[in-house]
Design goal:
Elements: H1 11-35, E1 40-42, H2 43-52, E2 65-69, H3 74-83, E3 87-91, E4 94-98, E5 109-113, E6 132-134, E7 139-141, H4 143-153, H5 156-167, H6 181-192
Parallel strand pairs: 2-5
Antiparallel strand pairs: 1-2, 3-4, 4-5, 6-7
Helix pairs in contact: 1-3, 2-4, 2-5, 4-5
Length: about 200
């Protein structure tokens, strides 16, 4: 087993890590806008966009970029992102675009398909790509669609993202009435354990 090489921790490395994700997000969304492809940013960047609309100090960083598209637009998405310098790969069944030929999956643009389940056993499919709002730099999924996606996946990071939305009062107990029973039960877990 190879010895782990640990670099020096520094503010510059931490700041650069955040900047790299932002640059990737802007480069990918700009390429899609330019090509006229409908898309919506989802995942941690969408959560950050919503949270920042209330309290920028509550924003949590994320390491990758998740983008929702229509499956029938994949060829156009591939052309647009390839022109922007990304390399298409399929890793563990997930369509993604790496930062060049030597890029890593954790640093990629991950693709989700509108109106399709991300995992076969998901309770609900991903939302329609049109369920989005236009931000200053990119389109991101509507709050309702984002909450539904996070409740559907409900992994540790999804629960953390839901708590972030709850912490800035974007979601609350009134949402329980809007959701199907299984999703309402999951949201109740978040409401009952806001600190995890």
């Amino acid at each position: 087993m190879a010895e782990l090489q640990i670099g020096a921790a520094s503010w510059e490395r931490m700041i650069r890590a955040v900047e790299k994700v932002r640059e990737r997000l802007i480069r990918a969304s700009t390429a899609l806008e330019k090509s006229g492809v409908d898309y919506a940013v989802v995942g941690g960047n969408a959560v950050a966009a919503w949270v920042s609309s209330v309290d920028e100090a509550a924003v949590r960083n994320t390491r990758d970029v998740d983008i929702l598209i229509r499956r029938e637009d994949m060829d156009r998405v591939t052309a647009a992102l390839t022109e922007a310098g990304f390399v298409r790969r399929k890793v563990k069944g997930i369509e993604m675009f790496l930062e060049g030929a030597q890029g890593r999956a954790r640093d990629a643009v991950h693709i989700l398909f509108a109106n399709e389940k991300v995992r076969a056993d998901d309770a609900a499919p991903a939302p329609n790509v049109t369920e989005c709002v236009q931000g200053p730099k990119f389109r991101y999924v509507s709050l309702e669609a984002l909450v539904q996606m996070k409740l559907t996946s409900f992994r540790d990071k999804d629960r953390m993202h839901l708590r972030d939305l709850y912490d800035v009062d974007l979601i609350d107990a009134s949402w329980l009435q809007r959701l199907p029973p299984e999703m309402a039960t999951r949201l109740q877990v978040i409401l009952d354990t806001p600190d995890g």
